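Cast an eye over my tokenised protein here and flag anything odd:

===
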Amino acid sequence: MNIQTLKGFRDFLGAEARKRQYVMNTLKRVFESYGFEPLETPALEYEEILTGKYGEEGDKLMYRFEDNGKRRVALRYDQTVPTARFVAQYQNELPMPFKRYQMQPVWRAENTQKGRYREFLQCDADIVGPDSTLADAEILQTIIAAYKALGFSNFSVLINDRSNFEGLSTDAVIAIDKLKKIGEDGVCQEMVDKGIASSKEDAYNVLRSITEKKPTQRLQEITELLQKEGITHPVYSPTLARGLDYYTGLIFEIETEEYPVGSLAGGGRYNNLIGMFAGKQLPAVGFAVGFDRTIEAMEALQLFPAEVMQASAKVLVTVFSKELERKSVELSSRLRSNNISTELWLDSDSKMEKQLKYADAKGISFVAILGPEEVAQDLVTIKNLKARTQQQLPLEKVIEMLLQ
């Protein structure tokens, strides 16, 4: 038996799990402040629902198989296409505009590397219904507010309009989207290698025609709406393409020079995708947060609050002996009833040294001790493991101190 996780899959424990929960809770709070409702969809969809929506690369990376009922199924590749299926399935029951956010894992058979995994969490928000610059501006406002709430102060929002690439093949758009990674020469060479351009000179002309394009009227309107709200983050980037085939208008990415490993989040307008399922056009705009990259950036920039790094329990109540076990249980209950996160030691035969080492290893800040002396005087000994101090206090004073 191979006792380890599959390549590209991970376990999360303690501090790592708390970081993830902190980011999710922060995003949830921001999304709901803009009126987005939570949505959950199944991990498995019929294969035909997902294939052909992400381009050739997406179909290659998708986990697809035959289930026990001989049905062709696939694991969720992203959350946008399942949302499109959901909206089409329930279109007559949903109020429009439909505003949803979703935080669930997705699966891709990627070549694993730093920040790239085969199972990872996506956090999305979408507005379905209006094809308006107001909706586009609000989706940008939401993602900007989210990253500010997470503590980012120096970040950019690169925006473009997918219509700038009209007349170009999908391969050409994908090559141009790599400009930052491989440079002009690399983009032009890829165009020649893929037969998009007959020569490097021809490829340079194609690339130049894109770099010289001005913002579309719609992008100007979106930017003006944001500026009226005091938001100056968007930066026009004519070569920003985002490789997914379903984008039709606004596209954008979040990045920061302080952690230059690629975009932290991205999205755009996709007016035709839901219509593939619904039988009528239902415009939509949304984004996906690069959850793991965002956490890595927050770690590098030290954006996590100190309390996120602490153990779930603020205090460990020790058990001095079998005879005093009941007193420790009662103390634990009193502390918890005062909203103090408390862990009770669960083995009456353990030495005190073992209990203190346990609390230290878990990062629990305080240890409460109730020995014969403390019980006789109606006191509690409190050890502060971080400050390496201890004092004896009445229970009310203990509660007061731990609530600070």
The two ends are 49 Å apart (CA to CA).
